[in-house]
């Protein structure tokens, strides 16, 4: 299948990229992450992905739109900011996958043991139905440790928090009140 993979960051892309290619799929990455705060962090993650793409010669589509206002408005109005965050990014991926005639779309968020895995799966499937394109599901969490090893080997930047300003705040609060 030709799969458009939403990429949250380079380290999380390493294992799914390898796994999908080994399974015979044709993978293109899709970077769209307006949730990341602050802007310098966003640029650092983008540059890290560019480094990986350069080393691995992988096709990538950058939707380099730092739409932080849209993210913040939706996150603050939502009962569950992560649900909104998943929808925002996966919807954009599905739209691009559908208009560019990919067979399916997926997300590297499925590798993270820190994400709401079942919610991600449900969200991907719902959006896939809406846009008439298959959501490729695989539990990439089995490759989480391997993804960190590949990333260390390539000296990719590894962030200390999920991405948004709220997760950044929680990171420091946890350090203050362990
Ligand atoms: S914690 Fe992560 S998934 Fe949840 S809203 Fe923030 S950036 Fe998005």
Describe the structure.
The protein is an alpha/beta fold and 178 residues long. The chain has a single domain (2-176), classed as HUPs (Rossmann fold), CATH 3.40.50. The protein has helices spanning 10-22, 39-56, 68-77, 81-99, 117-131, 144-154, 165-176; strands at 2-6, 26-31, 59-62, 104-107, 134-135. A five-stranded parallel sheet has the order 3-2-1-4-5, with helices on both faces. Helix 1 packs across helix 6 (144-154) and helix 4 packs parallel to helix 5 (117-131). The longest helix is centred in the middle third of the chain and has 19 residues, at 81-99. The mean pLDDT is 96. The structure holds iron/sulfur cluster (SF4).
Task: Please tag this protein with its features.
Rossmann fold, 5-stranded parallel β-sheet, 12% strand, globular, binds iron/sulfur cluster
What is the CATH architecture term?
A: 3-Layer(aba) Sandwich
Q: What is the ordering of alpha helices and beta strands?
A: EHEHEHHEHEHH
Give me the count of strands.
Answer: 5
Bound molecules: iron/sulfur cluster
CATH superfamily: HUPs
Number of helices: 7
The low-pLDDT segments are: none
């Amino acid at each position: 299948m030709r799969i458009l993979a939403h990429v949250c960051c380079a380290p999380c892309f390493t294992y799914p990229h390898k796994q999908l290619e080994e399974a015979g799929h044709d993978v293109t990455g899709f970077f769209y992450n307006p949730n990341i705060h602050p802007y310098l962090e966003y640029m650092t993650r983008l540059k890290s992905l560019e480094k990986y793409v350069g080393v691995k010669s992988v096709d990538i589509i950058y939707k380099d739109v730092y739409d932080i206002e849209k993210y913040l408005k939706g996150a603050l109005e939502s009962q569950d900011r992560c649900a909104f965050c998943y929808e925002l990014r996966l919807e954009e991926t599905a739209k691009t996958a559908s208009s560019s005639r990919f067979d399916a779309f997926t997300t590297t968020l499925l590798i993270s043991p820190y994400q709401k895995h079942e919610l991600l799966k449900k969200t991907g499937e719902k959006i896939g139905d809406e846009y008439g394109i298959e959501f490729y599901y695989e539990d990439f969490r089995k490759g989480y440790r391997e993804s960190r090893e590949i990333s260390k080997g390539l000296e990719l930047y590894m962030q200390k928090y999920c991405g948004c300003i709220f997760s950044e705040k929680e990171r420091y609060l946890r350090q203050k009140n362990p």
